[in-house]
Structure formats: C-alpha cells, structure tokens
Design a protein that fits this description.
Mean pLDDT is about 75; it is low at about 150-160 and about 175-180. It contains seven helices and seven strands. Helix 2 (about 25-30) crosses helix 3 and helix 5 (about 185-205) runs antiparallel to helix 6. It has two domains: about 1-145, Alpha-D-Glucose-1,6-Bisphosphate, Chain A, domain 4; about 155-255, no CATH class. Helices cover about 50% and strands about 30% of the residues. The protein is rod-shaped. It has a seven-stranded antiparallel beta sheet with strand order 1-7-6-5-4-3-2. The protein has about 260 residues and is of the alpha+beta class.
Length: about 260
C-alpha cells in the first residue's frame, strides 16, 4: 500500500510539531484508537481498532520515530498485528512546511498488509487508509488550531471579570455620594439664622424678651436640622439591591 498527500493545519509549525509528538492529541485524533503510550522520546505503543471492508480487528503495535528534524519532520517506522485478521508493517515520511495561514503537512506512506485483510485487495485497503487519514487530520486540525486550556481559562476569566466589573460599576453609579456642594439645608439655616439675629436685635432694641427667646430657639432648631441633613447626605451610601441586581452579580461570579 502506497499513499501520499498533503494537509494544511491552521496553526504555527512549532505547535503542529509539538502536537505530532503529544500522545494525548494523537490518541484523540486517531480513529478507533484505544490506547497510545509514549515509552520513550522516540517510541510509542498503541492499540487501534480498525475495520477494512467486512473484516474488523484490534491491532497492537509500535511506532518508532527516526530521522528527527524538529520542527521540520521525521520518519515513522510502524509494526502492528491484528491476529488472524492480518498485520501491517511499513514506514511514513512526514514533513512540515510553513504556509500562509498555517502549516502544510506532507506525508508519504509505504506499507505492507498481510493476512486476511490483504486478500481484500489493494483498492479496498487504499480507500480505507485514505478515509482513516482524512478523519485523523480533520480531528487533529481541530485540536491543534483550538486554544490551549490555559488560554481558554484566561479568556473565560477575563470575560467574567469584565462582566462583574460592569455590574459593579452600574451599582456603584447608583450609590454615588452626593455632590459636596453646599446643601440646600445649610442655605436655609443661614437665612433663618440671619432672620433670627435680626429679630434678636430688634427685641433688644424694644427690650422684649419674648422676641429674643423665639429668635434663638428658631436659630438652634434650624441649625440642628441642617447639620443632621448634611451628615445624612455625606455619610456612606446605603446600597439596596433588587432581585435583578443580585442575579447579575451571582451570574458574573459563576462565570
């Protein structure tokens, strides 16, 4: 069996190279892969379920990496056995090249299939191999082009922070401390105090104690009221949250 093709992966070459040596990404990308373990930097052990025409089998085998040229490519040496269903042995040359929009992976496979599967004929084996390769690169491209878990977490946390900040900002705007300009109560107090002084002065001129007592009492009452009002307005604001406000804050915290 011989097969050669190219696939464009929407990711930088270094990332594609690292993914081609990552057991977790390879295991998730290979159709029917049951297990894939890295015994060393240059050797993998795998178990894969494959169906060729009416014949299905579970192959166990090894993949050795040779002629490594990071991040430009390598050569794969593979051997696998599926019992009475057949066996496979061969090699694949893999090359990576930077292209606009990503990395171009080219591969050239030369393998020999034995046993019952070999009796099905070359066209069926070739068609199955191309189908498996298509599914592999489709899934591999999705995994490699996707952001890493750390990047995804960072984006999610940043989005949650922005949502929480927006909700907090809206609530803070509602509870903004009133302007420090002179309150109306103080203006009223000044006017009344002036009036009280005028009345007190008039009372002294007329030698009437009733006018003096009334003026002083009025001044004290208004000044006390003005001081109370000013203290109330300049104190820390009391924020009252309705159900919608609480729901938005809780949703922001959960995200």
């Amino acid at each position: 069996m011989k097969m050669a093709s190219e696939q464009l992966i929407a990711a930088p070459r270094q990332r594609v190279w690292e993914a081609l040596n990552d057991p977790q990404i390879l295991r998730a990308s290979i159709p029917g892969c049951q297990s894939l373990d890295k015994e060393s930097e240059e050797r993998f052990v795998a178990a894969v379920e494959v169906k060729v025409g009416p014949i299905g089998a579970r192959f166990k085998g090894t993949v050795a990496l040779t002629e490594l040229q990071p991040p430009n490519g390598y050569t794969l040496k593979l051997e696998g056995s599926g019992g009475i269903a057949g066996s496979v042995k061969g090699s694949a040359v893999v090359r990576l090249r930077e292209e606009a929009g990503g990395t171009l992976i080219s591969y050239d496979v030369d393998a020999q299939v034995g046993g019952r599967m070999a009796q099905l004929g070359g066209p069926i084996i070739d068609a199955t191999a191309r189908q498996i390769a298509g599914k592999f690169f489709s899934r591999f491209g999705e995994l490699v082009a996707a952001p890493s878990s750390a990047e995804a977490t960072h984006v999610k946390l940043a989005s949650s922070s922005r949502s929480a900040a927006a909700a907090t900002g809206e609530l803070a705007a509602r509870a903004r401390v009133p302007s420090s300009n002179l309150p109306t109560a103080w203006i009223l107090a000044i006017v009344v105090a002036g009036l009280a002084g005028f009345l007190a002065g008039r009372a002294q001129g007329n030698a009437g104690s009733d006018w003096a007592g009334l003026a002083i009492g009025m001044a004290l009452l208004v000044v006390a009221g003005a001081a109370f009002e000013y203290g109330r307005r300049t104190a820390a604001p009391v924020l009252v949250l309705d159900s919608a406000d609480l729901r938005r804050l809780m949703e922001g915290a959960k995200e």
